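Q: Fold this one first, please.
A: Sequence and structure below.
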Amino acid sequence: MEWIDAATAAERLGVKPATLYAYVSRGVLRRRHGEDGRRSLFSAEEIERLARRGRPRSQPPELVIESAVTALGVDRPYYRGIDVPALAGTAAFETVAEWLWTGDPAVWRPPPAGDSVAHLRAGPASTVDPGRSGEPGAATHADSSRKPGAVTHADGTGAARRAGRAGEPWRCEPDEALQAAITAQRALPDDLLPLDRLQVITTVLGASDTLRYQLDPGSVTATGRRLIAGLVDALPPLSDPQGHSIAERLWSRLCPHPATPPLLTAMEAALVLLADHELAASTLAARVAASAKADPYAVVLTGLGVLGGPLHGGASYGAERLLAEIAEPRHAARVIAERVRRGERIPGFGHSVYKNGDGRGAALLDLIKQAAPGHGRIAAGEAVLAEMRRRRLPDRNIDFALATLSAVSGMVPGAGEAIFAVARTAGWLAHAMEEYERGSLLRLRASYTGPPIT
């Protein structure tokens, strides 16, 4: 049997190497490694058969966009080479956002003395090398026993806290813009879901920002800080913030009860885990908008419009409703059975990329269990997981973990979507910056299937 390398195989098929490897991951092609253990080799006969047959009809058209922001592994993403679940519970959301926007290893270093938020104690410096050995997540740290930005509670409890939050807290400036966004919501229904409010807030903040058309990286980064702060601070307050971080302020907008330190750690972990996910549907839409040189607010508004769909970020709201139906763990079997009988999807389960489980969901659920051991909502969630396994249905994903966090914390309906949206704003802007630099319009083509052209 003749074996050819990836470049030759891609050229014969007329596709990019990324598409070739997508065929491998979907079982369309087989490959083996060369004697050096690094090169990928493909059967020349199999490549020839596929070339003659054309694109597999069962496979959707493959859109490949080069990006240095996020890589997807078997069960988890990597932000510019760093294992994301490894950051959960230890890294500040603000730090992770800065990493996505800049790729500067300096974001992981502790701030100068007196520069950090008072209640945080900075972790060790770390040096990130995303491309080492070509493996996602390759990174070195001054203390390999600590994760980037790891820190402990200043009170000595040892609870995981967030670090690397250098400088002043993020603020929406000018204050007039924030007040305008708050005022714009006065006529809205009191029970409106937070995600719907975020779309109104984004529109008003954008209209109030005279710097929104500055599309250089530094300006977009500054806009990102202002925008995320505004998204959070313009939501109606339900309790007093326990600090100045985005996680602490967002908690006070989504929950009428003060957060325990472990639950706040889980909240920030959710923000970190959801900050980006390669070319998810909302991110692709955001990139298309950015390729047309839409300003950052318009990019985020585009992403928000897509994110609310039940097959995307809206799945967490569906999972919230699912858990709400299960008053006691013994009800889980009946609730799942009824949904299966009606032919409905089980929200919070299955993933188009992670076929054998979503590592982000596992990481977040672990933190929630540690934060609230023995909680009744966790028991209900465990009953759902057991019933899904009994039926051999897909494994849980990050949306189910997000719904569990909302239920355990006593947050308002739709809180999971709001956490998702605030977090993903960081990723949308990171991808937007790549499109601004690329400078060409993303223009997809349709495969026409209509009546014959006359």
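Q: Good. Now the second chain.
A: Here it is, same layout.
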Amino acid sequence: MECIGEQIGGFINMMQPEFFQEKHIYKVFELNRNVRLILENEFAQVWVQGEISNLRIPGSGHMYFSLKDENAQIKCVFFRGANAKLKFKLENGLSCILFGRIGVYERDGQYQLYVEKVELKGKGALQLAFEQLKNKLKKQGFFDLKRKRKIPFLPQRIGVVTSATGAAIRDILNVINRRYANVEVVVRSALVQGKSAAADIAQAIADLNEYKNLDVIIVGRGGGSIEDLWPFNEEPVAYAVYNSKIPVISAVGHEIDFTICDFTADLRAPTPSAAAELVVREKAQLVIKIDNLRQRLTETIFQKFKMAQMRFLRIKQSYALRKPYLIVEQYQQQMDNLEKSLKSNLCHLIKIKQEQFKNILKSDVFRRPKMIFTRNQEKIEKIEKSLSADFLHLLRIKQENFKIISSRLTALNPLSILARGYSITYSAEQKALKNIGEIKNGDILNTKLDKGVIYSTVIDLQF
């Protein structure tokens, strides 16, 4: 501070009358430059605490804002080369501690703080960056449940993105080999910690998407601090998971650790071992389940067969199959009765009409024909039409009944089944054969088809 005092004192001395007497006059830019050099020399490294306001970020990527407290404020500049290292996004109202140097913008003669580093007051920088990115991706639909895909029931090929030398890959492989050793595992080794880890993880997910026939991808690592797990909280990893064509399971850290990758993935597992257990079913349990299903299927088929067999026996023992000719005789008798009834009804109807005609002859028609004929001519025509219509209606009914009875007789005729592709085999004595025990090698048989007869000789019998 003594040096500052001396320089300020020297500056004040320059303002004394003696100074003007020497005609040593500064130009404006010279004065601003001298002030800048003095400030930069004395305030090359300062920490300043306050609240951000009037934040402005033009297309150049530089940040311009004010840092204020309840009594004063100072202009600040945060150049793009320095602010690119920020883990979070600056916002108005953010309380923080800035590190940098004091300088002067010579054109305007304005002194300001050139920021090199920002630390948050209170909430940690990483936690704030996590919440900011989480809110941003949530608004873009990255976490929507509708886009979450189901994990295959029993995947055949599993991709894993993790460190090839870490504990996570050993845990995953041990669980998979124990539960279902038939599964193929494709490991894409990636950095899981450090500045380059996020880009490597994102590229690894993209590489596995180009790999053929992968059913699911596990992305993860073992536990660690928030700094260790931070690559899984970065935007490139979130986009890689979101754009993956293959379902992704996130298994980062321990059960209490939550990352952006967890929220974006189709399924979150608390640990890498848990991810392996979720994606691979235990083979022994699957075998037991299959055996149970096989037993239930066998029992169901047996019950269906038993019911069908009982139904067949009932049909075989039915009256229609045991004595079909009796049914034919009954229908023939019924047809005779219908024919007799039809003739009787017709004769009776004719007699009635004849009597009606006779009565008409005895009526006044013939005594006074001219008068009566004209009056009753329409009645006669109506009677004729009615008689004709009734006769035709009754005839159609009888014809339909006759067709129905005829079709039933045809269906019940034992020989009609031959037209449907069946045949009847007779012995040499013309006895219909029912089982193989009624014949022997060398017997001559004849098989009746719908059209024609086949004669054959028995060569071999199979029981």
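Q: Anything worth noting on the second one?
A: Confidence is low (pLDDT under 50) at residues 1-5.
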